[in-house]
Structure formats: structure tokens, C-alpha cells
């Protein structure tokens, strides 16, 4: 079942963040989720199989001066890599649910980035009707406190 994320999902979200390639402590996820749950620009859905959350999609409103349309920017999409997860259509269902929520908000474009090395993910997105229209590198700078 797809539903909005809740604070009770912290442990599963922490585990899935690691599957996505972002290992992080449960306390940080808990802190971040408490902020995100109160942010109306965020959309955070989970797939709950009845025993645990086995996938999630997180997106935010992407509104820039240089874009004609307001978009949803997918920040993360992950499905558990154990036997109960990937290959069951869960990722497609999460994307579809996000698309429906976008339409309900009057948003007509979904934007997402995917690492250049994630070839299987690229094929998945293309199979879902997404097209690659840009190539970029990500640059970060950690600022001193």
C-alpha cells in the first residue's frame, strides 16, 4: 500500500537510505523527517507491504526563475534490494502515485537526476516514460560553521 510517510517509519527510511547509497544515522533521519513532514513543498510517499516500508519516493516543489513550469524534483526513489522489493513493480507504483499527486497540485512536469553509473535505474526511468535531456556534474562545498 502506498501512503504518506509517518514518523513511525524512521527505522525503515534509515535502512532504505542506505540501500540508496546514503548510509545515515536514525537520529538524523528522525530530525530531518520531523522537518520534512511540516513542509508543504515536500511530497514523501512510502510503499508499506504490511510488515515494513520497502520503498519510498521523496520529491520537492522545484520552482525557478528560468523555468516556464513549476516541477516536482525527485530527491530519492528507492526500493528494498531484498527479495520482497525490487522487480515487483513497487518503484513504478511510487512514481505513478507521485505523478498523480503532482497533477492534483497543478504540476505537470517531474524532474529527476540519476547518477551516470546507475544504468539499470536509467532503463527503469525510460520504461516509465522519462527522457534524459541533460548531462551534468554535481558540485558540493561544505561551509564552515
UniProtKB/TrEMBL annotation:
**Segments passing through the bilayer:** none
**A GO molecular-function annotation:** acyltransferase activity, transferring groups other than amino-acyl groups
Return the InterPro entries for the record.
Acyl_CoA_acyltransferase (IPR016181), Bact_Acetyltransf (IPR050832), GNAT_dom (IPR000182)
- Superkingdom assignment: Bacteria
The signal peptide, as residue positions, is none
Domain N-acetyltransferase: from-to ranges:
1-145
Q: Which Gene3D superfamilies match?
A: 3.40.630.30
Instruction: Give the UniProt keywords, A-Z.
Output: Acyltransferase, Transferase
What protein name applies here?
A: GNAT family acetyltraansferase
Origin organism is: Lactococcus cremoris subsp. cremoris TIFN6
